[in-house]
Every structure is written in structure tokens, then in C-alpha cells.
């Protein structure tokens, strides 16, 4: 398996296809498509002739669909992907011919075949399969929601999860993203980075005030990451969402490098900070150690 992976908190309500951006706002796939188009344009300028604009536009068409917009008209796709109707029509008809999109002549929708686009990555990333049974055992033991995530730039991305009760306003699913600096798993993952990479990640983070407790000062965050690295775990209390309390520890690969993080999330009304440290952290550490042991066998 590949373990060079760089990747909850009280559960916010995020529907599939949504994420929380750096400003703490819910972003749909269409919103992200437009934002990422700007990012890709910047990359195009940097990479000069290496950028394939038609590929970028085709991917923008796919990202125009989400849970809130499972079916779109040609005009809707063109608007959400920031394309002309003629260009959107060509991309949609190509995707239809390849089996990634279906249409009734008026509305378009993605087909399950789009899952193939991520299958190569998922088939090589066996970490979620290794982690999942350990999360299930841990959740039964502590009777709380547990998750695993990897670092992707300045965000964490959920790769495995066992929910118990709804404790966030956002529904977390596989692929949900949160700002790393405001989450327990994110701080564990950021603290494991080399100093230069960690500083760059913090500098690039939006560090939005998601709640009145969110730590945003770069110096204070740096000090907190130093503490997390030293003690080997992170506890975030009401910084991602009010009333959400979560503790996380690292998951290490065969070479000992941090490849992911796992956490237990709970409610501030149900579990005190002392109880988190005394009753949730020890079994969480044991689960992470068990995952590491399995990884070494692969």
C-alpha cells in the first residue's frame, strides 16, 4: 500500500458535495468549480504551455453537479461551470457518449460511472480499508463518532468515519473538507510537517473565525502546533463549531511518518475536557496503534 499520504469534530450539517471554506461558509460543488477555475487559471499562467484548458473545462462541467443540483439544464451547466452554452454542449455530449452523463433531452445528470475517475486513487489508497474496522471498534467502545482524515493543502479530507449521533450542524461524509488549523485532526497533521512546510501551510490558511473560540493568530497557532507535536495529540474545544469538542492522534505508516489522523468527537454538554483526556484519549491512542500495526503488515 502507499502510506505516503498527507492528509471529527462535532458534526457540522454539510450535505454531500459541500464543504466549509476558509471563511467558514458552506460551498457547493458549483461554487468550488468556479473558485477552482480561478486557481487553475493561476496555475495555467505559472505552467505556461503545460496547461490543458479543455481538460480543466471538462472537469468543471462534472463539478457543476452536486447533491443540491443532481440534474441541470444546458444553461445551468454553462452558468455553473462558467462556460458558453456552445462549449458546455460539446462537453456534455462528449461525457454522454462516454457514459459519464445521461440526458432526457432537456436535463443532464451524472451517472455512477463518474466514480471510475477516482477509482485508481482509491484502489491504491488502502488506508481507509485498514482504518475502518478499527474506527468501528473504537466507536462501539466510547459510544461517540470517530473519524480518520488526511491532509490536503490547508484542509483535512475525511477518508473514513463512523457516526453515532448528530452533534454538528453539518453532515460529515467521506470527502468532507474542513480547514486544518481549526480541527483536532488538522492540527495533528500540521504539527507533523517539517517546519518550513508547516509555516507555509499556516500562511496559506484563511484562519477564519468560525466561532468566537477559533484560534487564528499565526503565533498562537504555531505555539499550539508545537504543543501538539510534543504531546502527540490535539484537543480542539468549540473552535470549528460551538459545542463541538474533539481529540485526535496521528496514524503512522510503516516508516513511522504520520500518514493520517484519527479522532473522537463529542458534545461539550455531554463530555468534559477532563473526561475527554481520561476516557476518550487512551482508547483513541490504542486504536491508532492498532492501525499502525496493521499498516506494517501490508
Show the helix and strand layout.
Elements: E1 19-20, E2 26-27, H1 29-47, H2 53-63, E3 71-73, H3 74-81, H4 85-98, E4 101-103, E5 107-110, H5 116-124, H6 127-142, E6 145-152, E7 155-162, E8 177-179, H7 184-191, H8 195-204, H9 218-231, E9 234-237, E10 244-252, E11 258-267, H10 273-297
Antiparallel strand pairs: 1-2, 3-5, 4-5, 6-7, 6-11, 7-8, 9-10, 10-11
Helix pairs in contact: 1-2, 2-3, 3-4, 6-10, 7-9
Could you characterize the architecture of this molecule?
The chain is an alpha+beta fold and about 300 residues long. It has two domains: about 30-120, Winged helix-like DNA-binding domain superfamily/Winged helix DNA-binding domain (Arc Repressor Mutant, subunit A); about 120-295, GAF domain (Beta-Lactamase). The protein is about 45% helix and about 20% strand. The protein is built from ten helices and eleven strands. The strands form three sheets. A six-stranded antiparallel sheet has the order 8-7-6-11-10-9, sandwiched between helices. The chain has a three-stranded antiparallel sheet with strand order 3-5-4. Strand 1 and strand 2 form a beta hairpin.
Brief write-up:
The protein is built from ten helices and eleven strands. The protein is α+β, with helices and mostly antiparallel strands and 298 residues long.
Summary keywords:
298 residues; alpha+beta; Beta-Lactamase; 10 helices; 45% helix
Strand segment tally: 11
- SSE topology string: EEHHEHHEEHHEEEHHHEEEH
Radius of gyration: 20 Å
For this structure, the CATH topology of the largest domain is Beta-Lactamase
Q: What name goes with the CATH superfamily of the largest domain?
A: GAF domain
Gap from first CA to last CA: 6 Å
Mean pLDDT equals 84
Shape: elongated
The assigned structural class equals: alpha+beta
Report on the biggest sheet.
6 strands, antiparallel
Put simply, the count of helices is 10
User: Spans of 5+ residues with little confidence (pLDDT < 50)?
Assistant: 1-19, 22-26, 32-44
Give helix % range.
40-55%
Strand residue percentage: 15-25%
**The number of domains:** 2
Amino acid at each position: 500500500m502507499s502510506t505516503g499520504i498527507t492528509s471529527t469534530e462535532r458534526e457540522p450539517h454539510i450535505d454531500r458535495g459541500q464543504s466549509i471554506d476558509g471563511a467558514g461558509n458552506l460551498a457547493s460543488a458549483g461554487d468550488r468549480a468556479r473558485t477552482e477555475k480561478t486557481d487553475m487559471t493561476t496555475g495555467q499562467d505559472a505552467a505556461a504551455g503545460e496547461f490543458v484548458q479543455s481538460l480543466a473545462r471538462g472537469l468543471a462541467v462534472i463539478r457543476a453537479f452536486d447533491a443540491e443540483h443532481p440534474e441541470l439544464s444546458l444553461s445551468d451547466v454553462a452558468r455553473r461551470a462558467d462556460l458558453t452554452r456552445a462549449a458546455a454542449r460539446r462537453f456534455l455530449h462528449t461525457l454522454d457518449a462516454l457514459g459519464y452523463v445521461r440526458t432526457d433531452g432537456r436535463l443532464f445528470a451524472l451517472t455512477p460511472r463518474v466514480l471510475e475517475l477516482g477509482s485508481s486513487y482509491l484502489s491504491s489508497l488502502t488506508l481507509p480499508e485498514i482504518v475502518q474496522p478499527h474506527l468501528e471498534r473504537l466507536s462501539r467502545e466510547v459510544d461517540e463518532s470517530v473519524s480518520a482524515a488526511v491532509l490536503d493543502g490547508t484542509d483535512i479530507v475525511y477518508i473514513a468515519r463512523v457516526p453515532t449521533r448528530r452533534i454538528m450542524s453539518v453532515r460529515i461524509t467521506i470527502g468532507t473538507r474542513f480547514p486544518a488549523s481549526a480541527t483536532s485532526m488538522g492540527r495533528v497533521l500540521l504539527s507533523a510537517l517539517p517546519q518550513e512546510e508547516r509555516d507555509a501551510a499556516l500562511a496559506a490558511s484563511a484562519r477564519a473565525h468560525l466561532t468566537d473560540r477559533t484560534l487564528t493568530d499565526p503565533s498562537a497557532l504555531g505555539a499550539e502546533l508545537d504543543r501538539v507535536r510534543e504531546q502527540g495529540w490535539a484537543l480542539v474545544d468549540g473552535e470549528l463549531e460551538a459545542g463541538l469538542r474533539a481529540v485526535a492522534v496521528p496514524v503512522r505508516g510503516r516508516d513511522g511518518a504520520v500518514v493520517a489522523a484519527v479522532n473522537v468527537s463529542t458534545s461539550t454538554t455531554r463530555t468534559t475536557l477532563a473526561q475527554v483526556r481520561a476516557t476518550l484519549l487512551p482508547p483513541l491512542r490504542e486504536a491508532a496503534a492498532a492501525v499502525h500495526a496493521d499498516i506494517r503488515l501490508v
